[in-house]
UniProtKB/TrEMBL annotation:
Pfam families according to UniProt: MFS_1 (PF07690)
Main location: membrane
This protein's UniProt keywords: Cell membrane, Membrane, Transmembrane, Transmembrane helix
Organism domain of life: Bacteria
InterPro entries linked to this entry: MFS, MFS_dom, MFS_Efflux_Transporters, MFS_trans_sf
CDD domains documented for this protein: MFS
Residues of the Major facilitator superfamily (MFS) profile domain: 1-402
Name of this chain's protein: Major facilitator family protein
High-level lineage: Bacteria, Pseudomonadati, Pseudomonadota, Gammaproteobacteria, Vibrionales
GO molecular function, one term: transmembrane transporter activity
Protein species of origin: Vibrio caribbeanicus ATCC BAA-2122
Segments passing through the bilayer: 47-64, 76-95, 101-123, 135-155, 167-190, 216-240, 252-271, 283-302, 308-332, 339-356, 376-398
Amino acid sequence: MNKTVHKYLTILVLSLAGSSIYALPYIKYVFYDVQLSVMNISHMESGMLISVYALGCMLTYIPGGMLTDRISQSKAMGFSLIGTATLGVVYMFTLSYSVALVIWFLFAVTTTFVFWTSLIKAISLVGEEDEQARLYGLYYAGNGLAGTVINVLALKISTLTEDPTQGFIYSLATLCCFCLFCGILVLLVIRDTNKVEALDEFNFADVKGLLKMPTLWCFSLIVFSGYAVSSSTAYFTPYLSNVVGISIEDTGLFSIIRSHLFYLIAPLGGYLADRIFQSTAKLFTLLFSLLALTLSGVLFLPSSMGELWISVYTLLPGAFGLMLYGLVFSIIRETGIPLKVAGTAIGIASLIGYTPDLFMSTLFGYWLDRFQNDGYWLIFLTLAGISVSGVILSAVVFKKNIGVKEVTVERSELNIA
């Protein structure tokens, strides 16, 4: 097969794999109300599933990364997908909350342990260094499109019966089939590579210096802010059905657009950061500002606005959030963090950045259980506040990056003189 054709086929398969494997642990993004009803659980219990999943992910990031360099990428991803499908089948036949808690913890093993780092490594190695940004943009665009198709199909299949439980089972079966199919596809298509980068030896002195860098913690908290806001737009799904009053099927469609289809704008975000703003941090100050305004603005929407236009308005935070999240790790290039410890920095940022899953779903679920629809005020105000902190952190990184550039220019001029 032609090298170029195989490169883009690989990105396509990875996009399918990435969207399929996370559809099951994050099934509440589309089937929030249905899952609560079928399992007879509270908002807080639903949030606990994500917290258990997040805890498992935190425990597997570092050992998974170490193991990834020693095993086959295709086998790591392929068997992870098959394992996720198997867990989905077990969940489908039980729909028990106690069993689901165990399954969601095991989902962390099958979707994060060696899958996540193998996926990132595969994307990085499929092309040359000068096309990394474009390939990542294509991956996220493909991931969003694939996720949209997969979840729309699952949603439509769930409507083949009037029984909510049976419809939920149909949707689970659909997602499991996609996972299994992608697992086989990865094993057949993805080639393992022998390309190895020459890395400096691990040095604790370098890590000690890294930990003293303020920009490391700014970077980590920007990841935290971006992920916290973008992932929590899932709460617009029950908001639209419980507060606005639109049908569960329509809320599911809006959720798919908000959580998956908007990944198609990831390449646009990359273009804006590189060509228009010439700084990811500068773009982030704008995106976080827009998120703060649109999230707080939900609380002041007039009832005369109508169900359709309110639903459309809730897509705005989803668009800004996914554009931001698609670029969130690229901001590391503006932090001044040395390349030889960039991997360690990304690991630290991941551990901090994904902690919202440990507590936010449970906290937000508690608010909804206790305060009912008034809980959405607390949720959206909290997310708006996190967005404001994102504005400040991004501005700090941008200012420090400008300072580094000015020093570099001055040194260059002195050398020329």
